[in-house]
Amino acid sequence: MSLELFRLKRDIPFMRWARSTIFFSVAFILASIVLLATRGLNLGVDFTGGTVMEIGYPTAADIPAIRAHLAKNGYGDAQVQTFGRASDVLIRLPVKAGVTSAQLSEQVIVVLRAQAPQAELRRVEFVGPQVGRELFEDGALALLVVSIGIVIYLALRFEWRFAVGAIFATAHDIFIVLGIWSLFQWEFSLTVLAAILALLGYSVNDTVVVFDRIRENFRKTRMTDVAAIMDNAKTATLSRTVITSGTTLMMVLAILFFGGEVLWGFAMALAIGIVVGTYSSVLVASPIVLWLGVSREDFIKPPKPESGAVV
User: 272: alpha, beta or left, given left = phi > 0 and alpha = psi -120 to 50?
Assistant: First the structure.
């Protein structure tokens, strides 16, 4: 027996708003594409290359003070965060023309020791631009492969119209998250890419739950009004959607507010994606399926002729 937060006696007319929701969704997607084409993404050191330094302090490090001290001394583009314990600090620095990774790390540790003489340089790593470019290309390839797999899965499990609706809704979620990242020029790192990949699965899972109920309604009802059938399915699954999205969002918000800077990008991408994904599962995917012409007959198997029947 499934847990229900509430039960509605009347179906909510979601499909009545379908034209408006699709209009806004297409507008947001186009705006995101324009932002990505004009401003692009603020790629982090993971993708562009740079120097990574691990610094040890005798006591808990004051991250804002370290960040301000580096900015005051000409390293305002340095990314500072705790690493493991509160006394361990990870500093990422972009590539600087004419300065090697070893020289850059020596300059930075001198600046840090001027503030905290007991600061200890524990590790220095250099990420080359070629490696960063390969990581970005591999991440884009992963997104493409996952998307193709989703289309094939949904086409086999449901019907090709459902596959198109789901992939449009999923692409809608990803484009909006990337558009927001481009608008505010937040750093796009490997953790954000991991969140994008996680959103693919979350968005599809939410959409599949609604699609399952729609398919069930097509098979058990005699109604011919496809929009009414979809409204009934979405209303029936609304409690489950609210519970799942609400509890997941609470967990992600806890990471966002208490997880520190190292998990901020990951949690923010997931938080935005959960909100947008819930919206698209209810108000974007199904209208696409409806406009592609799905009908009850697509899920009703024709009766088999009786063997030995006289022609």
Answer: alpha
- Same domain as 185, residue 138: yes
Judged by phi (left if over 0) then psi (alpha if -120 to 50, else beta), residue 253 lies in alpha
Torsion angle of alpha carbons 131, 136, 139, 144, nearest 10°? -130
**Any bridge partners for residue 55, and if so which?**
89, 121
> For the chain, how long is the longest CA-to-CA vector?
100
Q: Residue 245 falls within a domain, yes or no?
A: yes
Residue-by-residue DSSP string for 124-190: EEEE-HHHHHHHHHHHHHHHHHHHHHHHHHHHHHS-HHHHHHHHHHHHHHHHHHHHHHHHHT-EE-H
Distances (CA, A) of 67 to 77, 80, 91, 122, 229: 9, 6, 9, 19, 56
Query: Model confidence over 249-270: pLDDT tens digits?
Result: 999 999 999 877 778 899 999 9
Residue found under tokens 């493991």: 84
> 30 with 173, same domain?
yes
Whether 94 and 136 share a structural domain = no
The per-residue pLDDT for 311 is 45
Helix (H) or strand (E) holding 224: none
